[in-house]
Amino acid sequence: MILLLYETDAKSVTAHFLRETSPGGIKALSAGENKHAAHADILRGGGCMCTAIAYKTKDRYFGRNLDVDRGYGETVTVMPRGFELRFRREGIMKSHYALIGAAYVADGYPLYYDAVNEKGLCMAGLSFPGNAYYFGCAEGAHNVSPFELIPWVLCRCANVREARELLRDTNIAEINFSDELPLHPLHWIISGHDGTIAVESVRDGLMIYDDPVEVLTNNPEFGFHMRNLSNYMNLTSARPVNRFSGALELEAYSAGMGAVGLPGDLSSASRFVRAAFVKWNSVAGTSEEESVSQFFHILSSVEQQRGCSRTEGGWETTLYSSCCNADRGIYYYRTYRSSTVFGIDMNREDLDGQRLVSYPMYEDNGIAMKN
Fold it and tell me: C-alpha dihedral over 149, 73, 324, 101, to 10 degrees?
């Protein structure tokens, strides 16, 4: 079941700030407390590992798992075309493509984690600690902070080709949002009708990679993940045949043995391989419900359960999973505490407006007794 959320008089919906405090509950935080919690987590550079994928049935879909040890008040936020977007070094953008995505709205500014624009171009930022490198402002380049990069690209570009061209003249500048919200080490995946790329700002400069797998996780650098896939090219969804020795009579004794050797741990390298294998062997129907359901099943193969990956702040868990129909502008999500799929259609909002519209992510457990 998919629940579509929509409020005809919605101007701005205030989210509760959530943080995990125990295996069974969450605690509401004030805005000030939330910023300090985010600050401490960002400075650690850990406790934030994610997986993003693009997938196509009849329509194109894009989404991610956000794996963190606490929530920061995430909302599904629609940015209409007339929202005045202020960049720290690149002036004011008064008219642009509309966006929908998951964001933490700080002082009226949407800090997007992942989003899609009205043209179907999608983008997400994922943790990249130890490798991400941001530069000082450079003369002759567009100086854009990492927290500005998603709207910088999605507000201007209709496809991956345009995003590539824009990024060639873009310098990822070390400009904090505020003293309380410094920068987090990130890299990005961008996906559209014309392909998918991975973008990494490292000491050698801004690297733009073709991403034919349409998957991104975290460390190491993207090139490693592509090379590492060759270690698993013998995996198959089919029943395996005996290649061990023709002198031995060996037979498969269980279904699924073609995938023996598929990594099952929670590391970023293993999640990349597992997400790629499941995605590229996945079979889905073409209806919206079938496609969305299958997308979430793919993300479930790499989700993180509380208690399996300890961080300084507690346990890394999949706080939310998202799936956006990039062709229709519908953003679906479910959370760690609720397996119900909620949906928000950007086209039901006033896309020519000037104010953000934000919907808090629901945390209803949604257990329905049948007797």
Answer: -40
DSSP tag of 95: S
CA neighbor of 123 nearest in space, from 183, 208, 205: 208
Helix, strand or coil, per DSSP, at residue 222: helix
Q: Cβ–Cβ contacts within 10 Å for residue 340, how many?
A: 16
Dist CA 349 CA 6 (whole Å): 8
Give me the active site residues, please: 50
Q: Which two tokens stand for residue 81?
A: 């075309």
> Nearest Cα to 109, choosing from 124, 126, 87?
87
Of the CATH numbers 2.160.10.10, 3.60.60.10, 3.40.50.10840, 4.10.640.10, which one belongs to the domain with range 2-221+289-360? 3.60.60.10
Quickly list H helices, the chain: 31-44, 149-154, 160-168, 222-228, 268-281, 288-300
Half-sphere exposure of 40 (CA within 13 A, CB side): 13
| CA–CA separation, 79 and 81 (whole Å) | 7
Type of residue numbered 111: L
CB-based contact 340:366 (threshold 8 Å): yes
Q: What is the pLDDT of residues 178-196, one digit of tens each?
A: 999 999 999 999 999 999 9
pTM of the model: 0.88
pLDDT on residue 2: 62
pLDDT in tens, 332-344: 999 999 999 999 9
